[in-house]
Amino acid sequence: MSPDATVPHVRDVAGLVCSAKGCGAVAVHALLWSNPRLHTEGRRKVWLACEDHREHLSQFLSARSFLRAVVGVDELDESHG
User: Fold this and answer.
1) Which of 14, 50, 69, 81 has its CA 20 to 30 A from that of 61?
2) What is the pLDDT of residues 37-53, one digit of tens each?
3) Strands 45-49, 67-72: parallel, antiparallel or unpaired by DSSP?
4) What is the DSSP letter of 27?
5) CA neighbours within 13 Å on the CB side: how many for 27?
6) Measured on CA atoms in the order 76, 35, 6, 25, is the torsion positive or negative?
7) Cα gap 77→58, rounded to integer Å
8) What's the DSSP call for residue 3?
9) pTM of the prediction?
C-alpha cells in the first residue's frame, strides 16, 4: 500500500501492511492525517505503520503539521478514508 493510499471500509486488518517504503510488515497503527491546503475540513488520509515505523512516520507527518491522530488498525472504519 502506498503511503498516500486511503483505507475505506476496513473489515479484515490481518492483510494490512506498513506504508513505510520497502516495509512489508503487518500494520498495527493507523496514522490519520490531512493537509489543510489540499483536504477539506474533517477529511483524513491514512498511512499504516508497523511497530518499527510508527515513530518515524508520525514524526514526518508532525513536522508538516499534518498528523491528526494515531489509532490501532482495528479502530479503522469507513469514516477513515
Assistant:
1) 14
2) 887 777 888 999 999 99
3) unpaired
4) P
5) 29
6) negative
7) 20
8) T
9) 0.77
